[in-house]
Write a structure and sequence with these properties.
mainly alpha; elongated; two-stranded parallel sheet
Length: about 120
Protein backbone atom coordinates (compact mmCIF):
# COMPACT_ATOMS: atom_id res chain seq x y z
CA UNK A 1 0.00 0.00 0.00
CA UNK A 2 1.41 3.37 -0.98
CA UNK A 3 1.45 6.43 1.28
CA UNK A 4 -1.30 7.93 -0.87
CA UNK A 5 -3.41 4.78 -0.42
CA UNK A 6 -2.89 4.95 3.35
CA UNK A 7 -4.02 8.59 3.46
CA UNK A 8 -7.11 7.75 1.39
CA UNK A 9 -7.92 4.79 3.62
CA UNK A 10 -7.45 6.82 6.80
CA UNK A 11 -9.55 9.80 5.59
CA UNK A 12 -12.40 7.61 4.37
CA UNK A 13 -12.39 5.53 7.53
CA UNK A 14 -12.57 8.67 9.66
CA UNK A 15 -15.46 9.98 7.54
CA UNK A 16 -17.37 6.71 7.81
CA UNK A 17 -16.85 6.55 11.57
CA UNK A 18 -18.29 10.05 11.89
CA UNK A 19 -21.28 9.14 9.69
CA UNK A 20 -21.97 6.04 11.76
CA UNK A 21 -21.24 7.33 15.25
CA UNK A 22 -21.68 11.11 15.47
CA UNK A 23 -24.59 12.01 17.71
CA UNK A 24 -25.17 15.26 15.85
CA UNK A 25 -25.43 13.70 12.38
CA UNK A 26 -29.17 12.98 12.48
CA UNK A 27 -29.87 16.30 14.17
CA UNK A 28 -28.04 18.17 11.42
CA UNK A 29 -30.02 16.42 8.69
CA UNK A 30 -33.31 17.03 10.49
CA UNK A 31 -32.40 20.67 11.06
CA UNK A 32 -31.47 21.17 7.41
CA UNK A 33 -34.72 19.67 6.14
CA UNK A 34 -36.73 21.69 8.68
CA UNK A 35 -35.12 24.92 7.44
CA UNK A 36 -35.89 23.86 3.86
CA UNK A 37 -39.51 23.18 4.83
CA UNK A 38 -39.81 26.61 6.46
CA UNK A 39 -38.44 28.25 3.30
CA UNK A 40 -40.95 26.40 1.13
CA UNK A 41 -43.79 27.32 3.50
CA UNK A 42 -42.70 30.96 3.40
CA UNK A 43 -42.60 30.95 -0.40
CA UNK A 44 -46.04 29.33 -0.52
CA UNK A 45 -47.48 31.93 1.84
CA UNK A 46 -46.58 34.78 -0.51
CA UNK A 47 -49.65 36.37 -2.04
CA UNK A 48 -50.54 35.06 -5.47
CA UNK A 49 -47.85 32.38 -5.65
CA UNK A 50 -48.78 29.35 -7.72
CA UNK A 51 -47.13 26.28 -6.09
CA UNK A 52 -46.40 24.84 -9.52
CA UNK A 53 -44.19 27.86 -10.19
CA UNK A 54 -41.93 26.86 -7.30
CA UNK A 55 -39.31 24.14 -7.32
CA UNK A 56 -36.72 22.54 -5.09
CA UNK A 57 -33.35 21.37 -6.40
CA UNK A 58 -31.57 18.76 -4.33
CA UNK A 59 -28.54 16.57 -4.54
CA UNK A 60 -29.24 12.87 -4.01
CA UNK A 61 -25.92 11.38 -2.90
CA UNK A 62 -25.60 11.73 0.89
CA UNK A 63 -28.30 14.43 0.95
CA UNK A 64 -31.41 12.41 0.18
CA UNK A 65 -29.90 8.92 -0.10
CA UNK A 66 -27.59 7.18 2.34
CA UNK A 67 -24.86 5.62 0.23
CA UNK A 68 -22.57 4.89 3.15
CA UNK A 69 -22.78 1.10 2.59
CA UNK A 70 -20.89 1.60 -0.68
CA UNK A 71 -18.22 3.66 1.05
CA UNK A 72 -17.97 1.08 3.82
CA UNK A 73 -17.44 -1.62 1.22
CA UNK A 74 -14.68 0.45 -0.40
CA UNK A 75 -12.90 0.72 2.92
CA UNK A 76 -13.31 -2.92 3.87
CA UNK A 77 -12.18 -4.13 0.45
CA UNK A 78 -9.29 -1.64 0.20
CA UNK A 79 -10.63 -0.27 -3.07
CA UNK A 80 -11.05 3.21 -4.47
CA UNK A 81 -14.18 4.58 -6.10
CA UNK A 82 -14.75 3.28 -9.62
CA UNK A 83 -17.64 3.87 -12.02
CA UNK A 84 -18.17 0.13 -12.48
CA UNK A 85 -18.60 -0.67 -8.77
CA UNK A 86 -20.61 2.51 -8.19
CA UNK A 87 -23.03 1.55 -10.98
CA UNK A 88 -23.31 -1.97 -9.57
CA UNK A 89 -24.12 -0.53 -6.15
CA UNK A 90 -26.72 1.88 -7.59
CA UNK A 91 -28.39 -0.91 -9.57
CA UNK A 92 -28.92 -2.85 -6.33
CA UNK A 93 -31.24 -0.06 -5.06
CA UNK A 94 -30.28 -0.59 -1.43
CA UNK A 95 -29.68 2.99 -0.29
CA UNK A 96 -31.87 4.19 2.52
CA UNK A 97 -32.98 7.76 3.01
CA UNK A 98 -31.30 10.35 5.19
CA UNK A 99 -33.12 11.52 8.34
CA UNK A 100 -35.92 13.91 7.41
CA UNK A 101 -35.51 13.51 3.65
CA UNK A 102 -38.59 11.41 2.99
CA UNK A 103 -40.84 13.62 5.11
CA UNK A 104 -39.55 16.79 3.45
CA UNK A 105 -40.06 15.41 -0.05
CA UNK A 106 -43.57 14.19 0.84
CA UNK A 107 -44.40 17.67 2.16
CA UNK A 108 -43.10 19.37 -0.99
CA UNK A 109 -45.05 16.98 -3.22
CA UNK A 110 -48.24 17.46 -1.17
CA UNK A 111 -47.95 21.22 -1.72
CA UNK A 112 -47.60 20.87 -5.50
CA UNK A 113 -43.99 22.08 -5.57
CA UNK A 114 -41.77 20.39 -8.15
CA UNK A 115 -38.53 18.65 -7.15
CA UNK A 116 -35.46 18.29 -9.33
CA UNK A 117 -32.82 15.74 -8.33
CA UNK A 118 -29.15 16.22 -9.17
Amino acid sequence: MTDEDRRWFHNNTDAMLWLDLAAERDALYLQGFEVARLRVEHALSSKGVDPSSLCVFTDCDETILDNSPYNGWLISSGRNYHDTTWNQYCNRCISGDKPGAKEFLQFVKSEGVRVFYV
